[in-house]
Specification:
Strand order of the largest sheet: 1-28-27-26
InterPro entries: Quino_amine_DH_bsu, Quinoprotein_ADH-like_sf, WD40/YVTN_repeat-like_dom_sf, WD40_rpt
Low-confidence stretches: 320-327
Radius of gyration: 32 Å
Strand content: 35-45%
Number of strands: 55
Structural class: alpha+beta
Shape: flat
Protein name: WD40 repeat domain-containing protein
Distance between the termini: 67 Å
Keywords: Signal
């Protein structure tokens, strides 16, 4: 009996253990299935978010957060060597980062769907008037709420126009033009009989920049009418473009005869501003009435409105002749303060700074006959296309946060992003800044003899020392950034000028390249290395001009950027190991940055490619990353976490790249109104610090949780349950942006 009971007990225990094991296996399988589902949903959400950037910017931001939450939920317990897990995490992170880089912050869609709906955007971009079925509806596009409205405007509308202040609405109903008081919702009493449409279509109303002047166009005819006085209407030729001055005294027309003419309305006096036959002609008055911006084919110039004189101000990158030839002509518009000028086509929006003609922004759009407006807040531009108004954040270029009294013609950030060294164009002083406090900590007089000559500087890896070119031209001075004292000065025995300088991570060695003053006969320059602070000369080596020099993080080797592309022994200067470089023979390397542990490095080349290499074997890792920079002064940084690379992409932006996949993380990031001068990750890799030529010092979130917080703040809310049900109906609701 006891034997039987023991056997039964053993069987029961075995069965129980099997049941537990099977239950655990089922549980693990369910977890795995849930993770796979979430990752698949995360990839779909990331793609959806990217597709909604323009149509639904806020929803796109929140969906990118949801995608990251889903993709990263099982990241801690799962190896990202799994291709599907890696793809989900990378795509979700790219979408999340893109939510900070996107300029679109809001989009308002007119609920009216009637094809006979007419719309007008106010000059400040804050109000949209939508008119159809005898009713005018007034919308505040900032809140998406209806502000007011009125009826009685007629059912047979042929056009509407909103005055610059948004207080008056011009309504054309076949042959009658009526002015309505928007606030009161009733006609002002001013009316004008306009020509009846024929082959040229119906008369269309417009406002320029004058509150009282209504411009009515029919075919090539243009009538200027003062709606306040109800006085005589003056006929002109509409041509390609027209505008009225803010004070109501002037009119500018861009005629089909190739003449751009400024008219004095009181006496019909005229001044020819420009002439170009078969050119794209556009014109716009400045807010102070004194200047007219003129598009003349491929050029945009400023003209004196009273004399026609060329104000010698050209705008870079203004060539849109090709777009005009394709039927996509631009319009010009000044910002309310006159500091900026925008050119808008159905394909792009460009913004220039009027003071110097610098192109600050080129933003791609896909719109039909867009109408753009600067918001008076100085940080926002909106454009109306068909039934939607899209809001763009342009503060990075119009209102950059710059260091006070900073001169950053030359600038270098310490490798940990803690310190900034900056120098003006015509000074021998280098100023040190505390990046986090945004305050200067010292001014170093480096004693340059040639203030306008070539200048270079570099921090040691720990930021404790700074090497700068000394006044002799072929030497280097080293400064202690803690005591603000010069601790060493070294000089090469050969004559020439220093064109590249590097310091070892601990600041104990400085190396530089001295280019020859006389390059006849194929003379080469030399790389020199010295001990610091003793100044003992270690070695020198003949070398063709390199793009730069970089020490490995352990300080044992010096990397040559460009030409030979070898590692040199820091003790002897002798090359060792195989070479590295661009994947294509004959293509020069332009930049190089090491990972923090020195196991890898990234290089950029002159055909806009990045590639990652193993330091020990000098073998490339992964594929070629396309989309680097062809700019002569590339900037590269490798995150201390080893997962992200930052690079300069164009004249005013940088990009983040995922090391594991080579994928760009979101759109390029705007750094300010100036040219990027230096970039560095913070010591913990959570942020990227950039500085531009105009003193804009900015910290950009990189750590995903920091990015999530920033995106949620930008969106201003979380996903609603209804939105969740629309995009994630098979997954239980989660609050992706908790308070």
């Amino acid at each position: 009996m006891s034997v039987t009971l023991a056997a039964l007990l053993a069987v029961a225990l075995a069965a129980g253990a099997l049941a537990v094991q099977q239950s655990r296996a089922v549980g693990e399988r369910n977890v795995t299935i849930a993770l796979q589902r979430d990752r698949a949903e995360a990839r779909q959400l990331a793609a959806t978010a990217d597709a909604l950037r323009v149509a639904e910017p806020v929803t796109a931001m929140l969906l990118s957060v949801a995608a990251w939450r889903l993709a990263s939920a099982g990241e801690a317990g799962t190896s990202l060597t799994d291709p599907l897990a890696l793809a989900a995490v990378t795509e979700a992170r790219a979408s999340l980062t893109g939510s900070l880089a996107q300029r679109e912050t809001a989009s308002f869609h007119d609920p009216a769907t009637d094809v006979r709906t007419f719309r007008a955007l106010s000059r400040d971009g804050r109000t949209l008037v939508s008119a159809s079925d005898g009713e005018a509806r007034i919308w505040d596009v900032r809140t998406g709420r209806r502000a007011s409205g009125f009826t009685g405007i007629g059912d047979d509308l042929t056009g509407i126009a909103l005055s610059p202040s948004g207080r008056r609405l011009a309504v054309v109903s076949r042959t009658k033009l009526t002015i309505w008081d928007v606030a009161k919702g009733r006609p002002t009493g001013a009316t004008l009989t306009v020509p009846e449409g024929g082959d040229g279509g119906w008369s269309q109303p417009f406002f320029g920049q004058a509150e009282d002047l209504v411009l009515v166009r029919l075919g090539e005819g243009l009538t200027v009418w003062n709606s306040e006085t109800g006085g005589e209407a003056f006929p002109f030729s509409a041509g390609m473009d027209f505008d009225t001055s803010p004070d109501g005294r002037g009119l500018v027309t861009a005629g089909l005869d190739g003449n751009v003419t400024a008219w004095t309305l009181k006496d019909r006096g005229k001044v020819r501003l420009d002439h170009c036959e078969s050119c794209a002609l556009r014109a716009a008055y400045s807010p102070d009435n004194r200047t007219v911006a003129v598009r003349n084919g491929a050029l945009v110039r400023l003209r004196d409105a009273s004399t026609g004189a060329d104000l010698q101000r050209s705008f870079t990158g203004a060539d849109t002749q090709r777009a005009f030839d394709e039927g996509d002509a631009d319009t010009l518009r000044f910002s309310p303060d006159g500091r900026f000028l925008a050119s808008v086509t159905g394909k792009s929006i460009r913004i220039w700074r009027v003071e110097d003609g610098a192109l600050l922004l080129t933003h791609a759009i896909d719109a039909f006959s867009p109408v753009a407006a600067f918001d008076p807040d100085g940080r926002t531009l909106r454009y109306l296309s068909e039934g939607s108004v899209t809001t763009l954040d342009i503060a990075a270029v119009t209102m950059p946060v710059v260091l006070k009294d900073a001169e950053t013609h030359r600038a270098a950030l310490s490798p940990d992003g803690r310190l900034l060294a900056s120098k003006g164009e015509r000074t021998s002083e280098v100023r040190l800044w505390d990046v986090r406090r945004r305050k200067p900590v010292a001014t170093l007089d480096v004693g340059l003899e040639d203030l306008g000559g070539y200048f270079e500087m570099a921090f040691s890896g720990d930021g404790g020392r700074l090497a700068v070119i000394s006044g002799t031209g072929n030497g280097v001075a080293i400064w202690d950034t803690r005591t603000f004292r010069r601790i060493a000065a070294v000089e090469a025995s050969t004559q020439g000028y220093v064109s590249a300088v590097a310091m070892s991570p601990d600041g104990a060695v400085v190396a530089c390249y001295v280019a020859p003053s006389d390059t006849s006969g194929g003379k080469k320059g030399e790389i020199h290395a010295w001990d610091v602070p003793s100044g003992r000369h270690r070695w020198s080596r003949k070398q063709v001009y390199p793009e730069g020099l970089r020490f490995t993080p352990d300080g044992r080797a010096l990397a040559i950027v460009g030409d030979e592309q070898r590692l040199l022994d820091a003790e002897t200067g002798k090359p060792f190991g195989p070479s590295y470089g661009s994947p294509t023979v004959g293509v020069s390397v332009t930049g190089l940055a090491f990972s923090e542990d020195g196991s890898r490095f990234v290089i950029s080349d002159e055909v806009e490619r990045l590639s990652i290499w193993e330091t020990g074997s000098r073998r490339p890792v992964g594929g070629i990353i396309r989309g680097g920079s062809d700019i002569a002064a590339p900037l590269l940084a490798y995150s201390p976490r080893g997962d992200v690379i930052a690079s300069r992409t164009d004249a005013r932006s940088v990009a983040l790249w995922d090391v594991a996949t080579g994928r760009r993380l979101g759109a390029p990031i705007a750094v300010g109104a100036g040219e990027p001068k230096s970039l560095a990750f913070t010591a913990d890799g959570s942020r990227l610090v950039t500085v531009d030529s105009e003193g804009a010092l900015t910290e950009h979130p990189v750590d995903t949780e920091v990015v999530v917080t920033a995106v949620c703040e930008r969106a201003g809310r979380t996903l609603t349950r209804q939105e969740w049900e629309t995009y994630l109906k098979d997954i239980p609701y989660r609050n992706v942006c908790p308070d």
